[in-house]
Each structure stands twice: as structure tokens, then as C-alpha cells.
Amino acid sequence: MSSPPSSSHEQHEPIIHIPLDLITPGAFQARQRFDPASLEELAASIAESGVIQPVIVRGQAQTGYTLLAGERRWRAAARAQIHTVPAIVRNDLDEQQAAVLGLIENLQRESLGVVDTAHGLHSLSESHHLTHDAIAERIGKSRVYVTNYLRVLKLEKSVQSLLDQGRLSLGHAKVLAGVSPAMQERLAHRAVVAGMSVRALERAVRHLLQTTTSSRRDPARDPALADLEQRLSTHLGNAVHIHYAPDRRRGQLRIDFHDLDEFDGLLARLDFDSDA
After folding, report:
1. Close Cβ partners of 76 (under 8 Å, ≥ 6 residues apart)
2. Could you say which residues of the chain have pLDDT below 70?
3. 0.85 exceeded by pTM
4. Buried b / exposed e along 170-181 (16+ C-beta atoms within 10 A)
5. Cβ neighbours for 75, distance < 8 A, ≥ 6 positions apart
6. Domains by residue range for the chain, with CATH
7. 40, 48, 71, 202: which is the annotated catalytic residue?
8. 71 is catalytic
């Protein structure tokens, strides 16, 4: 079993300056998106003060270097028209250790978003056939940490986008991963509009699931109405109750909500403008 590359070891490696054009991005980059505005800010800082934190590479001057960690700094340096960057050469690492090192650096710097972290961990799992326990050991985190992040990849793309934007947290993601795809989208939208905490979202999911489950199990209910009630609840992300009296040929449709913010979100999903 290979050991994770240590930060203390890196600190004892000599720092050399390498021309940018001798460095190419590696295959182990966990970050999938580079925000242009953020890169411009970093480039301006680098133009003023230089690259303070060395990048980490493998390779040699004759054949070129592969970037293991620090692609954002490398890109920003190019924008700042800096021709060389400080670098630490880590030719002592095998491929698995190189992949782990890049992920560790980003995790320690807390510079990765939730979805990019999930993709980075998934890459370790798939490319190197590592269990959750093995990944946790290599990156210095708990198994629960790894499992929670990997659950993010089970979410709908629209929900992952809200995580990327910082409009939902990992805690929200854990709750949403336990419901159906259609319900994920509706509840995520509802949580964003209403500014719901993780606890509030947990209560909403629990209430919705209890309501739809009790409707399906009630033998006195018309199966068609129970099915419609469940599908409407999933579609809206709010508990829906349908009551119909065939002898009186009358019925009621009730949609539950908890506060006015949630009510406004419900109206928006119904495409109704309350201010019109």
C-alpha cells in the first residue's frame, strides 16, 4: 500500500524556477472549472507580487514537466505574462500518489467546490480501485467525509449546479441525495428560494415522504387519486392532499407550506405572479 505524499516532505524539496511553456497540466486535476473573474484577480496579484506558493510537478527539463498541483496558479501566471513559476519537482511519486497529492493540496487549501471535490474523490476510487476507507486514509479524512461527498454525484445536474454556485451546502446535498430525482429538483429550488437551513430541509423531506407514504397505504383511498397525489407532491416539492366525495361530486386540493417565503416559491413553481 503506497503512503500519501506528505506536506512536510514537500517543504524539504528544493524550489526551482521553471518556464511556463515547459509545464503541461496533468491528468489528476480535481478542479474542473476555473472561474475567469477569480483567475483575473489572481493574475493581477501575481503581476504585482509574483507567484508565492510553488506549483508541484513531475518530469525534467529535457522532456518537460507535468503539473500535479497548482494549475490555477499556473494559468494565472500565464495571464499575468509571467514567464517562469517557482516549482517543486516530485519525481519520487507514482501515479496514485501524484493523484492523491493534487487532491490533498486543494482540500487542505479548501479551494475546491463541493462538486469538484466529489469528482476528485470519485476519480481516485475509479482510476485506482480504492475503497472509501482507502481514500480516506490517503487524504487524511474520515470515511464518512468521503462517502458524503461521493453521494453528491447521485444528485441531478441542476442540483449540483446550485452546489457549485454556493446556493446549497453539502448538508443540503446529503438530505437531497435520499429522495427521487424529480423531488430533488423541486426541494432544492424550494430550499434556495426560502433560504432553508439543513434542518428545515430535513423536516420538509420527512413531512413530504410521510404524507405520500400514508396516502399509498390507505386502503380506502382511490388508487388513481393516491397516485396523482404522490406525483403532484413530487412535482411541487410540497405535500399535496386530494379529497374527493363522489356522492357529492365535490373535492378539495390542499398544498402544504410552512412560511410565506416557501409560499412565494410555490407560487413561482405554479407560474403565478403574486405581484401582478
Report:
1. 39, 42, 43, 45, 46
2. 1-12, 28-30, 32, 106-111, 211-221, 234, 237, 258-259, 261-262, 265, 269, 274-276
3. no
4. bebbbbbbebee
5. 34, 39
6. 7-152 (3.90.1530.10), 156-269 (no CATH)
7. 71
8. yes
